[in-house]
Specification:
The chain is mainly α and 166 residues long. It is 59% helix and 5% strand.
Length: 166
């Protein structure tokens, strides 16, 4: 299911939501076009569970800061496209309900909670976490709680399976 709109009108201009989407896209472009290479950028600025739990200062910035930098990096085009679509559809309503300042605080706290939740379940992992998925999941949770009767219009693709002869 892919959401494409909801029936919740907003009363404010969602400039924080738009700003977050713009920031994510800009960081993704910089990440993908970096002379150091996308993989090296991910390992330098992604949140590595082992490092953020032990405060191991191996990365170019403090491990705690990678919790924030990782929220704006993504693993690929579909990753960022999905996150930004969900942020646009649901984020503007949460921003309208919470206000601009409380919305950005909620967004960042959701991302931090998601990063540390994952890190605590994979404490020895040296694989970097990237993406806004945790922050966006927080937005989705807030949307469900604040707008339980809202109608969300989705695209549903009916897939099929085929046997491939190798």
């Amino acid at each position: 299911m892919i959401p494409f709109k909801d029936d919740n009108p907003i009363t404010i201009f969602p400039f924080v939501t738009i700003g977050l989407i713009a920031a994510n896209i800009i960081v993704f472009i910089l990440q993908m076009t970096s002379p150091a290479g996308p993989k090296n950028i991910v390992f330098a600025y992604g949140a590595i569970p082992n490092y953020i739990l032990t405060f191991n200062p191996v990365q170019p910035i403090h491990p705690f800061l990678t919790v924030f930098t990782s929220m704006f990096m993504h693993g690929g085009l579909l990753h960022i496209a999905g996150n930004m679509l969900y942020l646009w559809i649901f984020g503007n309503n949460i921003e309208d309900k919470l206000g601009h300042v409380r919305f950005i605080i909620f967004y960042l706290l959701s991302g931090i909670a998601a990063a540390y939740s994952y890190a605590l379940t994979s404490a020895s992992s040296m694989v970097p976490m990237v993406g806004a998925s945790g922050a966006v999941a927080g937005i989705l949770g807030a949307y469900i709680l604040l707008f339980p009767r809202a109608r969300v219009y989705t695209l549903i693709f009916f897939g099929f399976f085929m046997r491939v002869i190798a």
